[in-house]
Amino acid sequence: MHFSIPETESRSGDSGGSAYVAYNIHVNGVLHCRVRYSQLLGLHEQLRKEYGANVLPAFPPKKLFSLTPAEVEQRREQLEKYMQAVRQDPLLGSSETFNSFLRRAQQETQQVPTEEVSLEVLLSNGQKVLINVLTSDQTEDVLEAVAAKLDLPDDLIGYFSLFLVREKEDGAFSFVRKLQEFELPYVSVTSLRSQEYKIVLRKSYWDSAYDDDVMENRVGLNLLYAQTVSDIERGWILVTKEQHRQLKSLQEKVSKKEFLRLAQTLRHYGYLRFDACVADFPEKDCPVVVSAGNSELSLQLRLPGQQLREGSFRVTRMRCWRVTSSVPLPSGSTSSPGRGRGEVRLELAFEYLMSKDRLQWVTITSPQAIMMSICLQSMVDELMVKKSGGSIRKMLRRRVGGTLRRSDSQQAVKSPPLLESPDATQESMVKLSSKLSAVSLRGIGSPSTDASASDVHGNFAFEGIGDEDL
Q: Global pTM?
């Protein structure tokens, strides 16, 4: 999750008090909350009491006198690095102190009173699930409420997550981010003030072996089935005409488990697909479609004079990755902070092991670069859990004094309509060799950026690569 403080605001104090500087905290480029220095200092002091000064990153010191514009900008940069460092720390970033601070600040900034409201959550097939929640309910609360409405068992809730998406004109979903524990879903979606933003329930794991756990339950089976049918209809899962015929036959027989077993063998099953974007693979400014799943990033591309091709980048061969953002200035303008800025440009860059002794940077330019980074991290986390012999099966945490509000009436997951005939114009995909030797990759250096070392995501799964993986 990408935290930034791209700007400050001068605001008047309450009841005509003296003006103060407010810091706008953005999450994935969207305003999350607006806070004062004193509030962030209070957060720092509380974290220090709980975890000790040695664990915390440096916090910008107090000043006796009013800050100059240059000092305001310097403090903004220091606070941004502080928030990023705290969020990236496994202990601090997951602490209730840090997350509850951000939830309160989000609610206060958006001026949303605590009250009971109806919230619409969509399933992957577009089915609507209407739940009653409080505006102050965090992501875990809302996920619990959806599971209760669908009658999904508690021990399967951890296999699903809530995602913020933008519904496009054709009804397809463009994934913005996975909703986190530091935000209030109702506030997050309504503060965007657009009907095209929705909350969607989707499975949160990548390894299809975990499907067995979910398919043991009727509701879990129906959710997986509805998601898979939807992914096939959208073209996210690659299906031949013969495979499509077999799938439709299983659908007609209502053989959901057999349908899913066949779907598991298909290319891009369980993948998350992103909007069309640009990469420097295999050449500069190459139009690509990126999909994430099965411990890899897949890039579908069209080379000049050739048919549609696909290149796969395995997560276990990425040494590290990072997301960088830049704001291009209009030509002829000066670099005055906060003035004359254009649209934010996001890039995901990863260093990839092309061969045994050759690492190379690959860059993808996309508004969804942060979401891609989140997918990479979750795939690595899942690989490390599996490597250690652990399991993602878990009971949802119960907070002390918390209550689970179960709906009086459960809602069934509707069976999706039969698959339509495949598009006859859809081209077949040619898989590039596993070593990417079918395409010559131009050599590039490290992406030019002022990002500090803390902005780079090191890949623990990379350490386990042996010659047999190359």
A: 0.83
